[in-house]
Write a structure and sequence with these properties.
The chain contains 13 helices and twelve strands. It has 396 residues and is of the alpha/beta class. The strands form three sheets. A seven-stranded mixed beta sheet has the order 2-8-7-6-5-3-4, with helices on both faces. The protein has a three-stranded antiparallel beta sheet with strand order 9-12-11. The chain has a two-stranded parallel ribbon with strand order 1-10. Helix 1 packs antiparallel against helix 6, helix 4 runs parallel beside helix 10 and helix 11 packs parallel to helix 13. The chain is globular, with a radius of gyration of 21 Å. Bound molecules: 4'-deoxy-4'-aminopyridoxal-5'-phosphate. The site of 4'-deoxy-4'-aminopyridoxal-5'-phosphate has 13 residues, from helix 5.
């Protein structure tokens, strides 16, 4: 009998929840270097970085005092800049002291899970989700509880959420615009969710947190409007990353911001600060913090992103695929022409087009395309999507 490896049971279970993802990432790594692969798999850049980004980072790398590279928690100047931006953007009175700079949205979520959750607490979110909520929650000792979004329009299923929220629920995560569906949850849904959380918090005798993952809130198409869940419910926290709008996820910077109407805010600030230290000095590096105010002025070309979205939605529909046009994010979420989405994605991969199967998002029978692929990749992928669906129709 072989002894189990002497590693943490939590991490073993977190790793177990990523088996499908890791299998696809390994296959992707092998395939993407192949000549001319159309890499539409992850939200990764496929072209050179924004020129303004390089210049901004370079400028802030030059020390202006002896403390430039000293240990940093959340610096005053980026906190003030983010609070000011949020006051205008969200029309809510955010305070600098309620903004905590983090290593992207990953860092913000990891810190929040440490700060807000106890072992065994349940956290509810909707499928298809960002696929790393689950391992992060398990690693934090929490229990993921999952419900499906509504099949017809990818909006939150409030009845399913109501059924899933019980006495052990400590938080609900909402991701809008959603990775992978691109759905922006409308105000009516957010108001109904807030009423549900208020009612359940009262019934179970402790507040349920709303963690609002707004990582893609700068990537909203011109025919849609973003609505933040934050204004609807006092026990809410906003999570943001610059990794999407700058398309530079390797330069880790983001933040979490406590709701301006959060009751007992002082104790929560203390908990977040302690969690950020105790989790391993989980603060972004000094240069990225100094750069925040200038980074907020930069963005990938949203008009070009929208042209890519329109091109691919039109092309895929014309070829016979079923999909809703996303309202935000740089992803398309479509139905696989055959129930076995992994087999379908293999057919695309054999022809040099790499996309993510729905199974990775626990919703088989679908697939996700990343529009971060270059225009050239998308043009070359178009006939492949057509050929594969025609082959499948011919053989079924
Ligand atoms: N939340 C969602 C919904 C995401 O899609 C991602 C990145 N794919 C993250 C959080 C993490 O973002 P970052 O890597 O910039 O921290």
């Amino acid at each position: 009998m072989t002894e189990p490896a002497p590693v943490s049971d939590r991490i073993r279970r977190a790793a177990g929840s990523m088996t499908t993802l890791l299998r696809h990432l390994d296959a992707w790594d092998a395939a993407r270097t192949a000549l001319d692969a159309c890499d539409l798999m992850l939200g990764n850049p496929q072209e050179m970085p924004l020129p303004g980004l390089v210049e901004t980072i370079r400028r802030h790398a030059i020390p202006q005092d002896k403390d430039w590279f000293a240990y940093k928690r959340s610096e005053e100047q980026p906190r003030a800049a983010v609070a000011q931006e949020l006051r205008e953007w969200r029309d809510l009175p955010f305070r600098p002291e309620d903004v905590f700079l983090t290593t992207g949205a990953f860092g913000a979520l990891a810190v929040l899970f440490q700060a807000l959750l106890d072992s065994g607490d349940e956290v509810v979110y909707s499928l298809p989700p960002w696929f790393l909520y689950e391992p992060m929650l398990i690693a934090a000792g929490a229990v993921p509880v999952k419900v499906r979004v509504r099949e017809d329009d990818n909006d939150l299923d409030l009845d399913a959420l109501a059924a899933a929220i019980g006495p052990a629920t400590r938080a609900v995560i909402v991701n809008t615009p959603s990775n992978p569906t691109g759905r922006i949850h409308p105000p009516d849904t957010l108001a109904a969710l807030a009423s549900l959380l208020t009612e359940r918090s009262r019934r179970f005798g402790r507040p349920i947190w709303l963690i609002s993952d707004e990582s893609y809130s700068r990537l909203v198409y011109s025919d849609a409007e973003f609505h933040s869940p934050i204004g609807y419910y006092p026990y809410s926290v906003l999570v943001y990353t610059y990794g999407k709008v700058l398309l530079a996820p390797g330069q880790r910077i983001g933040y979490l911001a406590l709701s301006p109407s959060l009751p007992g805010v002082a104790a929560v600030r203390e908990a977040v600060d302690a969690a950020q230290i105790a989790a391993g000095w989980l603060f972004p590096n000094a240069i990225m913090q100094y750069a925040v105010a200038d980074l907020a002025l930069l963005s990938i070309d949203l008009a070009e992103l929208e042209r890519k979205r329109d091109l691919m939605v039109r092309e895929l529909r014309a070829a016979g695929y079923e999909l809703r046009a996303p309202e935000g994010t740089f992803y398309l979420w479509a139905r696989s022409p055959i129930p076995d989405d992994e087999a379908f994605c293999r057919l695309l991969a054999e022809r040099g087009v790499l996309v993510m199967p729905g199974s990775v998002f626990e919703v088989p029978g679908h697939f996700r395309i990343s529009l971060t692929g270059s225009r050239d990749m998308l043009e070359r992928a178009r006939p492949v999507f057509r050929t594969v669906i025609e082959t499948l129709i011919d053989t079924t």
